[in-house]
Design a protein that fits this description.
Elements (H helix, E strand, L loop, with lengths): L10 H15 L4 H16 L3 H11 L2 H12 L2 H19 L1
């Protein structure tokens, strides 16, 4: 299998999923399709269902959007400080 995971689904399930995917893709703009392609390429290269599931759960957390908005409003030094402070907080909680 040349080092890649086998990712086959039963034909019926695969065809249903492909049909749903095709329907969804048909409604996307060019910019949205580019993002989907980027995600798809990452999934192919780094197939990890747990990581995808974790990402989707984070995406549903409204606090993540707030954190990203705060980070985007900061300059590079501010983002570095934000990261530094968060990492220190994690270390403090672990001890």
């Amino acid at each position: 299998m040349n080092g890649k995971l086998k990712r086959s689904l039963p034909d019926q399930v695969s065809e249903e999923l492909r049909g749903r995917l095709t329907e969804r893709l048909a409604t996307l703009s060019s910019n949205e399709l580019a993002v989907v392609l980027e995600f798809a390429e990452q999934i192919v290269v780094n197939f990890d269902p747990e990581a995808v599931s974790q990402f989707l759960s984070w995406r549903d957390d409204p606090r993540i959007e707030s954190i990203l908005q705060i980070a985007s409003a900061l300059d590079e030094a501010g983002r570095e400080q934000l990261l530094f402070d968060a990492e220190n907080r994690i270390v403090a909680l672990a001890n």
